[in-house]
Design a protein that fits this description.
Distance between the termini: 93 Å
Strand content: 25-35%
Structural class: alpha+beta
Strand order of the largest sheet: 4-3-2-1-6-7-8-9-5
Number of domains: 2
Shape: elongated
Oligomer: single chain
Helix content: 10-25%
Largest sheet: 9 strands, antiparallel
Number of strands: 18
Length: 332
């Protein structure tokens, strides 16, 4: 019985200690300006521009033009990345206040690695803050509102992780991965392989015509043609080849080699866009069925796009584009 009373006493003391800490925390925040930790934007649909920059200096500007977002005023942005960023701005919340002893270290890291974020609605700057490093448990992110000197730890309810990775700066990562991103209606798709004649699938309304190959002027199979047009509209690349990649320095020699295939799309407004595919060299880890190293990677291609992008594509992602003309012959 004496041991039980001692246990109850210890529990009561622990509860009192916790309540005392909570009361002191609330007391210390009494009268605190809530804007110190108000990072959320309630009406993300009204956001027209986002600017993210750091001291490197790197800057990315994301601007809404109608129903589309542009990167640095020139390129179509990835809808999924924009959606994630807007969701973050809407749902971000205060997690906790870091201890006073840690604030100097947090601010020092923020000054070195921090990313400044500016949020505009029209011409009005509605939010501006700095995104710092993650908390020690990797479940929060230190941030600092402009005009304040106290950093706070933030999080997003329902998400276990830090938020700084959502505010990235590389232009190529923000750009859409669509190979043919134009919203214009397609009129014709031409495919050229080095070991065969070119062929073209033309569309006029719901009618498709096969030109070239062994199907000169024949009606094209409508199901196969529809699948081709849909595949072109949905085709995406794996990633952009950038100056820091080894392959980037070899782009001229790659472009001078014989393409694996060339795909050209023509729009109803007369504009065209082209993709030329090239082999990616194999390696010691890319083996054939007999265990021998393969000369070429069987799963990937380099692609040169007519708008200047140099990208890496996957054979799997282009499987419905790289078809033989026989796939479009009318089926009797």
């Amino acid at each position: 019985m004496k041991k039980l009373k001692t246990s109850y006493l210890l529990i009561a003391l622990a509860v009192l200690a916790i309540l005392s800490l909570v009361w002191r925390e609330l007391s210390s925040q009494n009268g605190m300006d809530k804007e110190l930790y108000n990072f959320a934007v309630q009406d993300t649909a009204a956001i027209t521009k986002l600017v993210i920059w750091d001291k490197s200096p790197d800057t990315v500007t994301l601007e809404r033009k109608g129903s589309q977002w542009l990167v640095n005023g020139a390129y179509i942005a990835r809808p999924d990345a924009i959606e994630v960023l807007l969701e973050t701005l809407y749902r971000i919340r205060l997690r906790n206040f870091p201890q006073a002893a840690a604030q100097e270290t947090i601010l020092s890291a923020m000054a070195t690695y921090g990313k400044r974020v500016e949020v505009y609605q029209g011409s009005e700057l509605v939010k501006s803050f700095t995104v710092g490093t993650e908390t020690p448990d990797m479940l929060g992110t230190y941030m600092l509102r402009d005009g304040y000197e106290t950093p706070v730890a933030t999080y997003m309810p329902g998400f276990n992780g830090y938020l700084s990775s959502r505010f990235f700066l590389r232009e190529d990562l923000w750009r859409t991965r669509e190979i043919w991103p134009s919203p214009e209606e397609l009129k014709a798709i031409t495919l050229i392989y080095p070991d065969s004649l070119y062929f073209e699938v033309q569309r006029a309304g719901n009618t498709y015509t096969l030109i070239g190959g062994n199907g000169e002027g024949l009606p094209a199979d409508p199901m196969a043609s529809q699948a081709l047009y849909k595949a072109v509209q949905q085709a995406q690349y794996e990633g952009m080849v950038i100056p820091t990649d080894i392959a980037f320095g070899k782009r001229d020699s790659i472009a001078a080699s014989t393409p694996v295939a060339t795909v050209t799309v023509q729009y109803v407004n007369g504009e065209t866009a082209e993709m030329r595919l090239y082999h990616v060299p194999g390696g010691p880890d890319i083996l054939d069925a007999d265990g021998r190293p393969q000369q070429w990677d069987p799963d990937r291609f380099y692609a040169m796009l007519s708008d200047g992008r140099f990208v890496l594509t996957q054979r799997y992602g282009l499987q419905h584009v790289l078809k033989s003309f026989r796939a479009f012959l009318p089926k009797n």
